[in-house]
Amino acid sequence: MRYNANHKERTRHRVLGHAAAAIRQHGPDGVAISQLMSKAGLTHGGFYAHFESKDELIAEAITEMFDDRYEFLRRSFIEGREPAEALSAFVDRYLSPVHREAIQTGCPLPSLSGDVARLPLVARRRFTTGTERLIRTLSALLQASGRADPEKLAVSMLAEMVGAVALSRAVADLTLSDLLLKNSRDAIKRRIGLS
Predict the structure, then answer these.
(1) Could you give the number of structural domains in the chain?
(2) Residue 55: is it exposed, middle or buried by C-beta count within 10 angstroms (0-12/13-18/19+)?
(3) Are 37 and 75 in contact (CB under 8 A)?
(4) Which residues contact 37 (CB under 8 A, 6 or more apart)?
(5) CATH number, domain with residue 130
(6) pLDDT in tens, 86-131
């Protein structure tokens, strides 16, 4: 059977979507190519028509995760809002129980930060690129909101938000989990003048 020119790209995108969810949920080492390809409706042998190695798949999936989350950020929080309003809505959502529970679809930073240091350089570079893009976006919103030292503030905000979400997912006590999110959310919004 012959496929049109877009078929391979759509199939690759579908595999990357399944890979991104599996990597967020189970970590890069928890991704089995045969299971991933089966979820995408393909055979294990079909993997090599799209990727040279598992390392390439993981690097591409990291890019896919960041691209997906950036689009969500742009559509859900930035478009049609004043910068301060966009920042406030983003912080509220990022540091929420909804995001805490969205391991398979949420921001890759809290899910992957502990794993990326052990991955090949190509994956770490993709992770770095995605992180830098988010910092630039936050920095631009902070600058447009009249905040001093927007880049330093963006780096600090992001580090605290990622840490709070990661900890809120790790602790077994739901009350403590909620408190980690709430206190970080309140502190960040106070620090950037949004309380």
Answers:
(1) 1
(2) middle
(3) no
(4) 15, 43, 44, 46, 47
(5) 1.10.357.10
(6) 999 999 999 999 999 999 899 999 999 989 999 999 999 999 999 9
45 vs 103: CA distance, rounded Å: 29
30 lies in some domain? no
As a whole number of Å, the CA-based R_g of the chain is: 18
Give how far Cα 75 sits from Cα of 68, 69, 81, 114, 143, Å: 11, 10, 10, 28, 20
129 within a domain of the structure (yes/no): yes
φ, ψ of residue 110 to 5 degrees: the values are -70, -30
pTM of the model as a whole: 0.87
**14 neighbors 6 (Cβ within 8 angstroms):** no
Range of the domain at 68: 53-191
